[in-house]
Design goal:
Length: 340
């Protein structure tokens, strides 16, 4: 059965149509590309080279298209986007507070977009302090530069978005090629020429320096050569003299050296003899002293022997008297007992 066109069914049909259109629009709509032109210096625009370096290049030399891709969540009300350069396949990002190009879009590549008087400015979505801008010498503004008032006064933070249809009008006076390869090749050729010129200059400087050093060292070399020649001549003269005499004097045949050796030998021998005499005297003195001590100890020994003999004789006499007295007492006591 067909659905009845009641109010609830109409609402459902309407919601379904809106959802289908919302899903189909991003796929069908063509992505717009822009050249981000600097406000104060409209001859320069944002550029990312093939190595991911961010610069502000001259538009007459090269210009680069950027696409703004939204990365909003379905349930998020905040709008954030990425800035993508398709020709070099890099996203504009902040890395450690510095503008660089990255292959993959991360949180450091999400920006907030704002517009004031027709000019756009971009700030980091997660770090609002970081802003896309260039210094006076067209170098990206870094994290440390935000604390320098002089740099911030001359910095450029606003861009004008040039669409593809506006590019031929702005560049009508000059012929421009949108080929990054040709620009890179031209830069590489210029760099090679500059490097060759620098190499030639360095070679010339090195040659001049070597010449100066050679000039400075020439007198010293001449002196050294003259000294060497003189030494060689002296040596040859001495050799000739020795050959004529038929004897070759060596260092060990020198008279002074031999005399010194002889004197040292005699001194050693004299010292040795003196040492032996001194030792012999010491030994004789020791023997004499020992003999004297031995003679001094002899009388003491005889007197002690006599005293010991006298003491022993007195002891024997006392012992004999004691025994005689005891014998008398015993005999007397025996007589008493016999009388009884």
């Amino acid at each position: 059965m067909l659905l009845q066109f009641t109010l609830p069914n109409v609402r459902t049909y309407f919601i379904l149509m809106i959802v289908v259109v919302a899903l189909a629009m991003p796929t069908c709509a063509a992505e717009k590309r822009y050249v981000l032109q600097l406000k104060e210096h409209n001859e320069r625009a944002l550029h990312i080279n093939s190595h991911g370096r961010v610069t502000a290049e001259h538009i007459l030399q090269t210009y680069q298209y950027f696409t703004m891709e939204g990365v909003n969540d379905v349930l998020s009300l905040d709008f954030k986007l990425t800035i993508y350069a398709a020709d070099v396949d890099y996203y504009l990002c902040f890395h450690q507070g510095r503008l660089v190009g990255k292959r993959n879009a991360t949180k450091d590549c999400h920006f907030k977009e704002g517009m004031i008087n027709g000019y756009y400015h971009y700030t980091s979505y997660y770090k609002p302090k970081l802003r896309v801008g260039f210094k006076a010498k067209f170098k990206p503004v870094g994290l440390k530069d935000f604390a320098k008032p002089r740099v911030m006064d001359k910095a450029i933070f606003f861009f004008y978005r040039l669409g593809e249809e506006e590019i031929p009008e702005t560049l009508a006076n000059g012929s421009n090629s949108n080929s990054l390869k040709s620009y890179n090749q031209a830069n590489s050729n210029n760099n090679n020429n500059n490097n060759n010129e620098v190499d030639l200059e360095q070679q010339q400087v090195i040659l001049q320096r070597n010449r100066l050093q050679h000039r400075r060292l020439q007198p010293k070399k001449r002196q050294q050569q003259q000294q060497q020649k003189q030494q060689q001549q002296q040596q040859q003269h001495h050799r000739r003299r020795h050959r004529q005499r038929g004897t070759v004097r060596h260092h060990h045949d020198n008279a002074t050296i031999m005399e010194r050796r002889r004197r040292r030998r005699l001194e050693r021998q004299q010292h040795k003899l003196q040492r032996e005499l001194w030792e012999q005297k010491q030994r004789e003195a020791g023997e004499l002293e020992r003999e004297r001590e031995r003679l001094e100890h002899l009388p003491k020994a005889t007197s002690s022997a006599s005293s010991s003999s006298s003491s022993s004789s007195t002891a024997t006499s006392t012992a004999l008297t004691a025994t005689a007295a005891s014998a008398n007492i015993i005999s007397q006591s025996g007589n008493i007992y016999g009388n009884v």
